[in-house]
């Protein structure tokens, strides 16, 4: 992947992991997974041999203040 517009959130998982700020998005995904675990909605398990996973998509966003400024450390990743 080429140069990234870091003023915009990643459009997909591959881009999120290839960007220079990948650690920020990894942390956002971990926060989302932890939230889903706490609600009893998510559990990581070993995939049985020969089985396929249900697909999912990560959606990324920046959280902004009332003036539209990005709030660092409040990046969001959601599973859809």
Query: Into which percent range does the helicity of residues fall?
Result: 25-40%
Q: Calculate Rg over CA atoms.
A: 15 Å
The N- and C-terminal alpha carbons lie at a distance of 24 Å
Number of strands: 2
The H-and-E topology, N to C, reads as HHEE
What does this structure look like?
The chain has helices spanning 13-18, 22-38, and strands at 58-61, 76-79. The model has no long low-confidence stretch (mean pLDDT 92). The chain is α+β, with helices and mostly antiparallel strands. It has a two-stranded antiparallel sheet with strand order 1-2. 29% of the residues lie in helices and 10% in strands.
Q: Topology, pairings included?
A:
Blueprint: H1 13-18, H2 22-38, E1 58-61, E2 76-79
Antiparallel strand pairs: 1-2
Distinctive features:
single chain, alpha+beta, 2 strands, 29% helix, globular
Can you describe this structure in just a few lines?
29% of the residues lie in helices and 10% in strands.
